[in-house]
Design brief:
Blueprint lengths: L2 H11 L3 H8 L5 H13 L3 H15 L4 H17 L8 H12 L3 H17 L3 H8 L9 H17 L3 H18 L2 H13 L3 E7 L2 E6 H8 L4 E4 L4 E4 L2 E4 L4 H13 L3 E3 H9 L6 H18 L4 E4 L3 E5 L3 E5 L7 H7 L7 H8 L3 H13 L4 E3 L6 E3 L20
Helix pairs in contact: 1-2, 1-3, 2-3, 3-4, 3-5, 4-5, 5-6, 5-7, 6-7, 7-8, 7-9, 8-9, 9-10, 9-11, 10-11, 13-14, 13-15, 17-18
Length: about 400
């Protein structure tokens, strides 16, 4: 490694991207391209950074497998910042294996953390947990320890393990103080603030009561029958019935739960579930079919009875949990509220819907002034102002049941 490359690498390690660029800006050899890419990423020029890192990886080729793997990891981190999940995770997994085999534990861990954060954004908590499980935060250098602890905080919060989240948060704060990176300290402070914000609302005596995350976790562990409008599911102890892909059934369930122990008029159920005020016999027949399907699904924990005016939910106790702010496309708003610019394809992958469905939802949100688009065609990205006053943790997509 020549002196200019060494000096540029030292400047990048110290966080001085401009000093690094002064030394390698006019060079096109693979080591210089890689350093230029990292410098551009530090300066926020992510698209240019990814292009340079790809050129560097191609330049190193298969003979310099270690250097190429490091470029792949750096490019994956840029893609994560761009919220671009189009690349298959196999390349990052292969790079991590090469780094582990070639005794580069710091970059191997960086690859592991990038992969874990990617799965967290996509709601695959099981995959993220598997990647974070072998990481011993106490043995890591301060910067990596802070990043690893922050990922553990997010995983614990998304899984409603509040005590684990507080413990990981304490580790993250200590490590960030030692690393002395202001941006990282601010990110950790924001994660800690989520613990104190309103996370959901509970229906009590006809009025909505705000709950923080630890109160939601206690409610989920109480054994009560919970109709969860944040994740669109029914939960009771070990029983979990996801209904996110069956919106009519969940609408009926929530309407019955909100009226418990009373009943709900048939016309009111039709209006709420089918969005029509002109009910006829076809709507009433469809309502009987949908209620029959719902009755079969909830049978292990509750019953649904027909009454003179409609239907009623029968259970020992029922709790309705709702997000702090109601509205369409809650998962999209929760994802966009992180301040990053998301592509339509990345949003579709995260929420598990088709791109066309997501495009329609974004168009409605844009018309309402809640999101904005930047760029054109394939370069278009979506942004939204941060949601203040409450946390969006329970609105984020998750492939696993809470608990």
């Amino acid at each position: 490694m020549d002196s200019l490359i060494s000096a540029a690498a030292r400047a990048l390690a110290a966080g001085d991207a401009l000093a690094a660029l002064k030394r390698v800006a006019l060079r096109d050899d693979p080591p210089a391209l890689a350093l230029r890419g990292i410098a551009m990423a530090q300066l926020g020029e992510l698209a240019r950074a990814r292009e340079l890192l790809r050129r560097a990886a191609r330049g190193f080729g298969t003979q310099a497998s270690l250097a190429r793997a490091r470029c792949v990891v750096a490019e994956a981190e840029v893609a994560l910042a761009l919220r671009d999940f189009s690349a298959a995770p196999r390349a990052l997994e292969a790079a991590m294996a090469v780094l582990e085999a070639r005794a580069d534990p710091a970059n191997a861990l960086q690859a592991r953390l990038i992969a874990a954060r990617r799965w967290l954004l996509l709601g695959r908590l099981d995959m993220a947990a598997a990647l974070l499980a072998p990481v011993d935060i106490a043995t890591l250098p301060p910067l990596l320890a802070a990043v690893a602890a922050l990922a553990s905080v997010e995983l614990a919060l998304r899984s409603l393990r509040v005590n684990d989240a507080r413990q990981a948060l304490h580790q993250a704060q200590q490590a960030a103080a030692r690393a002395d990176v202001p941006a990282l300290q601010a990110e950790i402070a924001e994660a800690g603030a989520a613990l104190e914000r309103t996370a959901a609302r509970r229906l009590v005596g006809g009025a909505w009561q705000p709950l923080q995350l630890h109160e939601v976790a206690a409610l989920m562990d109480s054994g009560a029958l919970v109709v969860d409008a944040c994740r669109h599911a029914l939960r009771a102890d070990e029983f979990a019935l996801p209904l996110a892909r069956r919106p009519i059934l969940f609408t009926l369930l929530r309407a019955l739960a909100e009226a418990w122990p009373g009943d709900v008029d048939r016309d009111a159920l039709i209006e709420r579930a089918f969005r029509t005020r002109d009910a006829d016999e076809t709507h009433r027949a469809r309502l009987r079919v949908e209620v029959g399907r719902l009755r079969a699904l909830v049978k292990p924990v509750a019953g649904i009875e027909a009454t003179a005016r409609g239907f009623a939910l029968r259970a020992t106790s029922i709790v309705v949990l709702a997000p702090p702010v109601e509205g369409e496309a809650g998962e999209l708003m929760a994802l966009l509220s992180d301040g990053a610019a998301w592509s339509t394809s990345a949003l579709a992958l995260a929420v598990g819907d088709s791109q066309r469905t997501v495009q329609r939802a974004l168009a409605e949100l844009e018309a309402a002034g809640r999101v904005r688009a930047v760029g054109q065609t394939r370069a278009r990205r979506w942004l939204a102002p941060p949601l203040t006053g409450f946390t969006t943790i329970l609105l984020l997509p998750a492939a696993l049941p809470l608990g």
